[in-house]
Design goal:
This protein is an alpha/beta fold and 249 residues long. The chain is built from 10 helices and 10 strands. It is elongated and about 70 Å long. Helix content is 41%, strand content 19%. The N and C termini lie far apart (51 Å).
Length: 249
């Protein structure tokens, strides 16, 4: 199955330029994913190319109108199929996190509505959009960056996209913990030494140290990630060791 992403946007080059590089660019080149960009401007229904209008109820800020967006979605579905999943990126959406990625990655055709202005007419969200997602609690100038985040994060999880080394690394974060610290040569910079265990060649001890530090960092920096998580006794022991070593217990 080839996964297809269609992005409806006023800035198609913004999307295509980013997606030329790195892991996602290579997935495109190898035909693992297929990208389709739709320029919303092409679906203007007015003589002067407008796709927005003022907000009912008054106030500043323009709203994307129903007819052009609906026409763009219809056109996207001609290619991608009637059962494509339409995502709308907005701060009102559900948090787009690694759990969301897991749930969305099996969808074959995803259409991402990445607009500008203050937002889209609510009737589009109610009738034409399948799910609404937020990448975080801040306001951006458009949905293009969030759309790219969705494409990047989902594409990385497709089998064959990452090399086996990279996917092994990924497996170790996908259990919902923060990453452990990384070091490379030289072993000493000024008076800062790489933790001795990482130089020991003892793979069991290294794995234990990494797990301990992943748990400890998560507990200190993002306790919310641990609050709904079952920790087996071994992890509790490692976390306690981390807290004792760092004077936190
Ligand atoms: N997580 N956005 C801007 C613009 C917009 C207007 C019309 C579609 C149609 C955001 C976020 C965010 C989303 C503000 C797009 N998009 N999106 N809005 N935070 O800030 O996802």
């Amino acid at each position: 199955m080839i996964k297809q992403f269609t992005v409806i946007t006023l800035f198609p080059e913004f999307i295509s330029d980013y997606l030329r590089f790195g892991v996602v660019g290579s997935a495109v080149d190898r035909g693992i994913i297929n990208l389709n960009l739709i320029d919303l401007r092409d679906f203007s229904v007015s003589r002067n190319g407008r796709i927005d209008d003022s907000s009912y109820g008054g106030g500043p800020g323009m709203v994307l109108a129903v007819p052009p967006v609906r026409a763009a979605i219809t056109s996207a579905k001609v290619d991608a199929g009637e059962d494509s999943h339409v995502m709308y990126m907005s701060p009102q959406g559900a948090r787009f996190d690694q759990y969301a990625v897991k749930n969305l990655r099996d969808l074959e055709h995803i259409i991402i509505l990445a607009g500008r202005y203050e937002g889209i007419d609510q009737r589009l969200i109610d009738r034409d959009v399948d799910s609404e997602w937020s990448v975080g609690d801040y306001v951006l100038s458009g949905g293009e960056l969030p759309g790219l985040i969705v494409i990047d994060a989902i594409t990385r999880t497709i089998p064959g996209v990452l090399g086996s080394d990279e996917s092994a690394i990924n497996d170790s974060f996908s259990d919902g913990l923060l990453d452990f610290p990384h070091y490379t040569r030289p072993a000493m910079i000024d008076d800062a030494q790489v933790p001795q265990v990482l130089l020991s060649g003892n793979h069991g001890e290294i794995a234990r140290w990494r797990r301990k530090n992943a748990l400890g960092r998560t507990y200190v920096g993002r306790p919310d990630l641990l609050s709904n998580k079952f920790l087996p006794d071994g992890d509790r022991e490692l976390l306690k060791e981390f807290l004792l070593e760092n004077g936190l217990l």
